[in-house]
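Review box. Two proteins, two foldings.
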Amino acid sequence: MSPLNSKQHMSGVVAGRLGASDIEDNFQDLHPPLSTHEAVVAADRCYFCHDAPCVTACPTSIDIPMFIRQISTGNPQGSAETIFDQNILGGMCARVCPTETLCEQVCVREVAEGKPVKIGLLQRYATDHAMDSGTEIYKRAAASGKKVAVVGAGPAGLACAHRLAMHGHDAEILEAREKPGGLNEFGIAAYKTVDGFAQREVDFVLSIGGIDIRYGQKLGEGISLQQLQLDYDAVFLGLGLAGVNALQMDGADADGVVDAVDFIAGLRQSADKSDIAVGRRIVVIGGGMTAIDAAVQAKLLGAEDVTICYRRGKDQMNASVFEQDLATSRGVVIRHWLQPEKVNVADGKLQSVTLEYTSQDSGKLAGTGETMTIEADQVLVAIGQTLEASGLGSPIKLDGGRIATDANGRTSAEKIWAGGDCTTNGDDLTVTAVAQGRDAAEAINDTLKQ
């Protein structure tokens, strides 16, 4: 990482703390792709287990030994098809999946040697090869005459729409934003998915035909779920979590207090990241992937001091150990057992954050009464996202603030399925959303055939 320039010694939240060339260097691909030689060498380490634990650990149940064997025998196209048959967004998942806690964690090589097969990078090698080749992989089945409304163009919605198209159904995606991709486009750190890959993958999904996307279509604003039930043969809800939890304390509305989700989205949509304003001293509140992504990117933009404060211990952070280590390797400080108490403002400017030390007794968290203060000119808030349920109406049963579904994604309402982060079965992972969108499409297809 390049040294800080003079602009970084200014106080306040400003753009251009680093020059454009420095930022370009800082935001290079986190995991550069494998060359063909590297891929073959990596594939040769696989034991091709018959009862492979990596397959069980994959939420989309990709036949991992099979696709790796296909790479080792010089068939990356066939390897990609093995992946896409289970996970049509396998290219993005290869980039952003926490493989270190899923397939690679249970790899026999990891258990025996502490060094797993590079499953994620091998998956990227195969899927990139297939997408770059432009070879047609899937053809739509004969038109069924059925039309399904898919609400949300995120991972769950795209996976559902593609599988519906494979079965010959028309899928009409209703997307609130003016751009598709959902979490993959707006919610993932820029260094994890470079070169506009999220949109290239959307184009790949849509290439099967039979899928139409209508933008600026938000449920509850001119579109009712009841009307969708009347107009379509089935409905799939892939709403994601559009709501953001806010700090509830003095000073929370001060200039410089920013939703980390908005901060990340702004970075992803910026053509010139040197235009993104960032503070000199930043406090990030939260312990999940959003907190890590926001903190690391703030550092890459030139912030001098970035501190993540989490109310519980290291082992209880939602962010994986790999992601925590990534953050600290970039100079981010992670402090545990601290919860925010007050944002301090003077003369209209954010000055610091006062936090209370916490402790845990029998699983119950409590403040100790002891506090500390960290200087800050910017606070990034990453304390969770929520379902915006106002447009759902009474037919949809909620559980814990999310849509209740059965194992196949069916909701309590007639003709309506759901999947991804908006459901009780979601776990805020792209790969899980893909699996649930795919499985719901199969359930919808079974119903439509009756």
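Next protein.
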Amino acid sequence: MKRNAFSYIAAIGGALFALNFASLANAADDVTVITLTQTPCQFIEAENGVDHGFTSTEQADCEKINAATGDKRVAESDALTLKPGKYIFRVTNKNVPYSLGFWLREEDYNWANPIHKLSKISVSGGGLDTGTTLDYEVELKEGEYLYSCPLNTTPDYKLHVKS
């Protein structure tokens, strides 16, 4: 009798483990990957897939280019619209000859406000050397967001999250 009870408990434990493992696998499937490509002074996908062919050897080059053309390019592009949920932003430095980063944040996020650091969504990181791809994971709620690269001095691209 004890052997049967032990077998029964082991089977239940194994089933629970399998169910838990399956739910973890499904949770990973619920993450959507958004691919973004940085070239000098821009994200290609954010500008309707158009690579403007800008050249840059340093951040100051992009500051000049985007001061002159950034607002117009963003106004002519379609903002990315997503549903609330978990995302991985997979960002590639295609051919910028210096290290880049990525910053996605709520539209009204202020990095200098300590309350925003605790209460608002912001994900960022650097280390995107030429040819490098990095993932930035975030869970987005309904609202308005911006994304950019402060090191490549791209424009602030809009992202809408709504059901």
